[in-house]
Amino acid sequence: MKFVAFERTQQGTGASRRLRNTGKVPGIVFGAGAATMIELDHNALFHALKKEAFHSSLLDMELNGKSEKVLLRDYQMHAFRPAVLHVDFQRVDATTRINKKVPLHFTNEENSPAVKTDKCGVNHVMAEVEINCLASQLPEFLTVDLGELVKGQSLHVNDIKLPKDTKVVTHGKPNPVIAVATPPVVEEEAPAAAAPAPAPAPAKGKGKK
User: Fold this and answer.
1) pLDDT > 60? residue 198
2) Does the pLDDT of residue 17 top 70, yes or no?
3) Are residues 76 and 108 in the same domain?
4) DSSP string over 73-106
C-alpha cells in the first residue's frame, strides 16, 4: 500500500493542534537514521487505518519525492470523536528483522467434519499472532486451514504453516491454542408436567326428614 507524507518543521502541542485544525495529522518516522517529523492528510489516513493490510504489511511512504519502506507502529485516536491524533512509522529495509502482529484468516471451517458432520461450533481463540521475520517477507496475514478439524480437536500455534525464516513469538507460552471445535450444546427437555388431580366431588347434603 502507498501513502503520501510531508515533512513538518513545527513541533509542540500548539503546533500539533493547529495542524489538526487544518485536516492534517502529525506523525513521526523513526529507524535507519534520524527521526523525521511528518504530517499526513487526516481523511486519507483515517480510511487507510480501516484496512487490515495497512496494519500488517510493508507500506510505501512517499516523502520529499522519495519512496521509503515503512511499517505502521502506533497511532492514537481521539477519546470519543472519530479522529486520528498522531501516527508512528518505522523505516525498514530488506535486512531488518521485526516483530509484528498479523491477523489469522480461518478457511474451510464449514467443510470440516466437526462442522459439517458433527454440527460443532468453532471457537477462534486467537484472531492474530505476533511473528518475527524479515521486514521484506512480512505476510499480510496467515492462513489457518480448518478443513480437517474434527469434533473436540484443538489447533495450536505449531499447526500454522509459516513462511520461510518466520517464527511465532509466544512470549513464553508453550504452543497456545488458536481454535477449538466445540460440540453442540444439547438442551435437555423439561419433564412433562403432571396432570392436575381431579377436583373432589362436592359433598352431598342430608335430605329433610
Assistant:
1) yes
2) yes
3) no
4) EEEEE-SSSS-EEEEEEEE--TT-EEEEEEEEEE
Query: Do 139 and 104 touch, CB atoms closer than 8 A?
Result: no
For the chain, what percent of residues have pLDDT higher than 90? Answer: 51
**41 and 105, same domain (yes or no):** no
User: Grid coordinates representing 151?
Assistant: 469434533
d(CA 42, CA 35): 21
Structural domain of residue 141, as residue ranges? 98-182
What does pTM read for this prediction? 0.74
Q: What is the mean pLDDT of residues 175-183?
A: 92
Q: Do 62 and 106 share a domain, yes or no?
A: no
- Is 198 inside a domain boundary? no
Task: Dump pLDDT digits (tens) for 49-81.
Answer: 999 999 988 899 998 888 989 999 999 999 988
Parallel, antiparallel or unpaired: strands 84-91 and 2-7: unpaired
